[in-house]
Amino acid sequence: MKLIPTALPGVVVIEPAVFGDDRGWFMESYNEPRFHARLAELGLPAPRPFVQDNHSVSAAWVLRGLHYQRAPHAQGKLVRVVKGSAFDVAIDIRRGSPTFGQWVGETLSAANHRQLWIPEGFAHGFVALEDDTHFLYKTTDVYAKDCEGCIVWSDPTIAIDWPIPAGVSPRLAPKDAAAPLLGDAVID
Q1: Residue ranges for the chain with pLDDT beneath 70
Q2: N or C: which end of the chain has fewer CB within 10 A?
Q3: Annotated active-site positions, please?
Q4: How far apart, in whole angstroms, are the C-alpha atoms of residue 113 and residue 16?
Q5: Which residues lie closer than 8 Å to 145 by C-beta, 6 or more apart?
Q6: Run of H or E including 135
């Protein structure tokens, strides 16, 4: 497994070792000792244990996010796509951070096997790039409605460069469409 730092300290792209032959392929999608060791090599802390797995299926141009949870149920997320592809985004929402309000994005797909580690203190969202995209993520805390938060996907101060074709409107959940701007969101 190879960890690649991004422009946001703590957020890393994970490239697992994939072993293939004429029968197909094999990979470890998660190995806690290796993951923790690779994070330590980058000077990053190990996350709290993963306690919940989620699986969503989306049609092309469904956009989910930008979601986060506040303390005491803040979540770190280890995300991947097992069918289809998605453009995945993390936004630093840690007040006082030198990268507050900045984002990174990565295309995750069944073909590239890449994963993204998003620690606590970041909002997360993605847009499905094709129909029947299956998105899986492990979280370091359980879902807690009273701690959930959302930032509108199109916040101009964040200015995410979503790879959505001209003339296509993303499909949003009502709560995502009505989400506040980062400056108006309750993040603490």
Answers
A1: none
A2: C
A3: 67, 137
A4: 7
A5: none
A6: strand 133-139
* DSSP label of 62: B
How many angstroms separate the CA atoms of 179 and 152, rounded? 5
CB 141 within 8 A of CB 77: no
Structural domain spans, the chain: 49-184
Helices (H), the chain: 32-41, 174-177
Write down the pLDDT at residue 26. Answer: 93
Q: How many CA atoms lie within 13 A of 17 on its CB side?
A: 5
- State pLDDT tens for residues 111-123: 999 999 999 999 9
| Model confidence pTM above 0.85 | yes
The CATH number corresponding to 49-184 among 2.60.120.10, 2.40.30.20, 1.10.287.620, 2.60.110.10 equals: 2.60.120.10
Q: Please, are residues 11 and 104 in contact by the beta-carbon 8 Å criterion?
A: yes
| pLDDT of 188 | 83
Tally of CB atoms within 10 A around 127: 27
